[in-house]
Amino acid sequence: MTRVSRVLLLVVWLAFIVYALFFAPGADGGEDPWLRSLLRLQSDEPSLLAVFTLLGLFPLTFACMLLRHDDRKVPAWPFVLLSFALGVFALLPYYILTSATHAGSHDLRLPEKLRRTAESSVTHAVLFVLTLSVMVWGLALGDLGVYAEAFRTSHFVHVMTIDFGLLTLLSVYAIYTGSRRRSLPQAMALLGLIPILGLLIYVWMTRMDESVSPYVPSETRMKNRRRAKSG
Fold first, then answer.
1. pLDDT at 200
2. How many other C-beta atoms lie within 10 A of the C-beta of residue 133?
3. Which of 130, 141, 160, 210 has minimal Cβ neighbours within 10 Å of its Cβ?
């Protein structure tokens, strides 16, 4: 990642924080007409509930991508964990602090079972089906007019909608940088424009791609060193 990329991500992150805190329209706190029902998963509007649910599936998808080889100097798991509550607010700092071209230099931090779960095709398939089901349900039964009104009148809905959009754009960036490392077509980044599903497809396609990934487990690095010495 170039310095320019880091600066741009930092600007986006700070701008979203300032906008969410001081400029986002709509009632907030106890006066927000949608906050309580969404937090309780009791909203009568499917489109709102669908987006809120997808914001829970987005961090799971990023977890599948980042936790399978979490061996960088800056650990990914705290940012992934915080993203379940803070969304892109938590994930952007990770991409700002890490370099896309720098290989892992630490032992893998997470237990092997958790890593295998993160890169399992079964996990990816379950997330894919859940995401697709929620999307279809929200689009088929939701009322875009109600969503638009909530976007104008609810601070929470306004911010969560922008959060969803930024997570989608971050998916494009994550796929783009990952494709460059793996010498894959950089046009694959367009997959990220399909919220969650595109990122899941990329994660599934690269789940066993340790040979060209900079995130090579320490065991593999040791085997390669032994082979080099013996050769």
1. 96
2. 12
3. 141
* Summary mean pLDDT of the chain: 86
Where b means 16+ CB within 10 Å and e means fewer, 3-31 reads eeeeeebeebbeebeeebeeebebeeeee
State how far the Cα of 65 lies from the Cα of 28, in Å rounded to an integer.
Answer: 34
* Residue pLDDT, tens place only, 64-122: 999 887 777 888 999 999 999 999 999 999 999 886 545 555 566 777 888 888 889 99
The pLDDT value given to residue 209: 63
Distance CA(199)–CA(182), nearest Å, equals 15
**pTM of this prediction exceeds 0.90:** no
- The SS3 call for residue 27 is strand
- Enumerate residues 6+ apart whose C-beta is below 8 A from 44: 37
